[in-house]
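Pinned message: reference record for ATP-dependent DNA helicase RecQ
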Amino acid sequence: MTKEAILKQFWGYDAFRPLQDEIIDSILAGQDTLALMPTGGGKSICFQVPALMKEGICIVVSPLIALMKDQVEHLRQRNIPAIAIYSGMKPREVDIALDNCIFGNIKFLYLSPERLYSELVKERIRHMNVNLFAIDEAHCISQWGYDFRPPYLQLAQLRELHADVPFLALTATATARVVDDIQLQLAFKKQNVFKKSFRRPNLAYMALHEEDKMGRLLRLIKKLGGTGIVYVRNRRETQEVAQYLFNHGIPSDFYHAGLSIEERSSKQEAWFANVTRVIVATNAFGMGIDKSDVRFVVHLDVPDSLEAYYQEAGRAGRDEKKAYPVLLYQQADCERLWENVQASFPDTDFIKKVYHHLGSYFQIAYGSGKGVALDFDLVAFCKKYALEIIPTLSALKFLEKDGWLTVSDAIYIPSRFKFEVEFSEVYKLQVQSAKFDPLIKAILRTHGGIYDLFVPINEYEIAKKLKTSYGQVVEMIQQLVTQGYASYLPKTNSPQIEYLHERVSIDHLSVDHTFIQNRKKIKEEQVRAVYQYLDAKTCRSISLQSYFGEQDDTYCEVCDLCLIRAHSDKEDKKIRAEIKYILVEKSLPLKELMDQMTIGDDASKLKIIRKLLDEEKITLKNDLYSWVVPF
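Predicted structure (tokens):
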């Protein structure tokens, strides 16, 4: 099938968006390709379409487990076989999934980068018929990027498994330095970049110094209309701000990673349906969410990088209609951001202390623990050992970079189920047992492929169909497991830590101090770039484009700076006209001239008088100002 036919059959679109066509052709030609496309630009189509055109399987690497799960679900809804392997899955579950990629009809395998630490995974990939490696959020491979992820450094090893398979690296934000580094780290055979402009003409960027943030937020929402997102720093603030807006008559709700999957889903659905007008969230909200009619995205705290801000602000106005990304800040916010950056780079002794406490927390003996994956509650851990959260979280990331362990984000993983016997044995059980027959029918009717691999199940939905309780469904499933008919993995909603090596004493724990210092310098540079954006004098869009290495001197005409300049220009023209009108009649000393002028404040009047003198349109002689240009 042609790429156009595949696009039409599986996605229902008649034509590709800008750049998608060219990127797909580059991949089909077997070329390593880097695609820079803003949020909402349709990056997934760029690897899904060519992968469907070719024999074999496409391996997609992504650090975002929630996004992986969403994409797998969307592909399955289109009858495209896809599976995901990520932190939190049991070894046997992973083993079965990999077997299906080799011997089954799977077209897309989604992997978290941590999985490439496993020799088992790498060896299985070697035996797969791979047609493409797609690296999502590719900026994560560069230490110069804003969201460096140490496990991404393993990705170049995929070349050793399939030397001739092309790489497609995808990202929404990357500076010129990061663009070069991505291609270097992924060992591109030659540089090959497709880049869409960072200019979003329909977005009116605003960065406003504001002491009364809540009052300004309320006025903005009432004035702008439509639905929007408000980003805040922590979970507590999501609830407080949402309650404030609700109390002032704005249908609003809060969202953060600590909510259950049911709560998150219901809140998202209400917002998508415009029942909830404003969602107040931490940055856990937004990835993979494609709501086109978002009219505003407001940040109540200063972001720690322009890359993060550009991505989050870019969730506004995907329908190409005018929308407003607004950043409200105070001087204290800037100072707090700098303090947080300093706290994010603990010294070597602190990192070693965290590693030691981690072993005690999980009761792992020295010389053991390799391959062990455990649920991890960061807050409880910090509370037990009296540790600050920000430096502790950073310490874990540096331990991850040095290859001691991996840390997964908190993500909801649903319950999974698989029959362990042949269909005939299950059918025999149904005939013999009236107790299990309704349960088995409910599972089989809802889930395909359940004899081949673990599939997600929802015990509450099954209970509803059987008109029984959740507890009774789980009890019957456990009985099927006990009798050897099935395997069952209960749901989890916890982050995980996995030890990659046996526990060692802190005297034998190596920590790359030089790397930490280099990362600190890079982070400080990124924060200074945010400060420069706040202090910009020309145009917000020009400022953002310049940061990403894109030269464009065209004013956007819609940001706060452009509006101020336009207002100032209009006032300047009026002041000029008034000066001309007054001085054409007769020459005047400065005080009388100023007294007769009715437009602008004294500073504005003096500024234009000086300009007119520089332009030689007025003269100053014997303390008298005169108009010298013919009327």
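Pinned by admin. Summary line: The radius of gyration is 30 Å.
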